[in-house]
Amino acid sequence: MVVKAVIFDWGGTLTPWHEVDGRAAWVAFARGYGTMACALNDLTAGLLAADQAAWQAAREEHRSRTLAEILASCGVEPSSAAAEAGLAAYWDFWEPHTLTHPGVWPVLDALSSAGLRIGVLSNTTWPRDYHRGLFERDGVADLIDAEVYSCEIGVTKPHPDAFHAVLAELGVSAEEAVFVGDRLHEDIEGAAAVGMRTILLEHPMYAGDHLTPSTAVPDDVVRDLSEIVPLLTDAGSVGRG
Ligand SMILES: [Mg+2]
């Protein structure tokens, strides 16, 4: 089957893998929001718990929640001026953890030049505009043909609907697409279940204790994204017209 599209996970795949202090992110929000002392601790604890519950629902029920829902569940009106100030501080906190890996542009450029369409499928509570802004900031937005964010479709990887959503946006069948991700359960097992070829980006930092166990076996394993270019652009293996 001719490969026509490559679909990437976002966190840990297109961004370098980072350990992030989730509580510190919500402390930043609460400070920006204008709370202090005990109120700051209470709001931070509430938002952290709501965020963790959202990720638990993503893992265990494959349901996706939005950032606005997390805020609202703690009594924060998402469109209020105070919330916007909180979010500005929250995004500032996240800034160093959202940088596109410097090796991504040459990889996407090579795949795109070989005639492949590029997609992104991310489990996320963050809005499309924010994600899109990161790709624009880092100069890769023009190389991405379709983006699907779980919070917009209500389900998370490995739910098959998530993969079908991005395949539909790209206009390709599962058999014509390759999925590249860093998690065995969400990315590799999910993509393989709908019929996609899979490539695992392996992270030496993954201890595995926060990951859902999986016995999925990827079609290929790489340690660096640049390794996927020869895998997918060897003569005869890509669609050039
Ligand atoms: Mg990932």
Question: How is this fold's topology laid out?
Answer:
Layout: E1 5-8, H1 22-33, H2 37-61, H3 67-72, H4 81-94, H5 104-113, E2 117-122, H6 128-137, E3 146-149, H7 150-153, H8 160-170, E4 177-181, H9 184-193, E5 197-201, E6 220-222, H10 228-233
Parallel strand pairs: 1-2, 1-4, 2-3, 4-5, 5-6
Helix pairs in contact: 1-2, 1-4
Bound molecules: magnesium ion (MG).
Residues 9, 11-13, 181-183 line the site of magnesium ion.
Question: Could you characterize the architecture of this molecule?
Answer:
This protein is α/β, with parallel strands linked by helices. The chain has 2 domains: 5-16 and 99-233, Rossmann fold (3-Layer(aba) Sandwich); 22-96. Helices cover 45% and strands 11% of the residues. It is built from 10 helices and 6 strands, in the order βαααααβαβααβαββα. Strands 3-2-1-4-5-6 form a 6-stranded parallel β-sheet. Strand 2, helix 6 (128-137) and strand 3 form a beta-alpha-beta unit. Helix 1 crosses helix 2 (37-61) and helix 1 runs antiparallel to helix 4 (81-94). It starts with a strand and ends in an 8-residue tail after the last helix. The mean pLDDT is 93. Magnesium ion is lined by residues 9, 11-13, 181-183.
Total strands: the figure is 6
Main pleated sheet: 6 strands, parallel
Query: Could you say what the CATH architecture of the largest domain is?
Result: 3-Layer(aba) Sandwich
Domain tally = 2
Structural class of the secondary elements?
Answer: alpha/beta
SSE succession: EHHHHHEHEHHEHEEH
Mean pLDDT: 93
- What is the CATH level 1 assignment of the largest domain? Alpha Beta
Strand content: 5-15%
Unreliable spans: none
Level of helix content?
40-55%
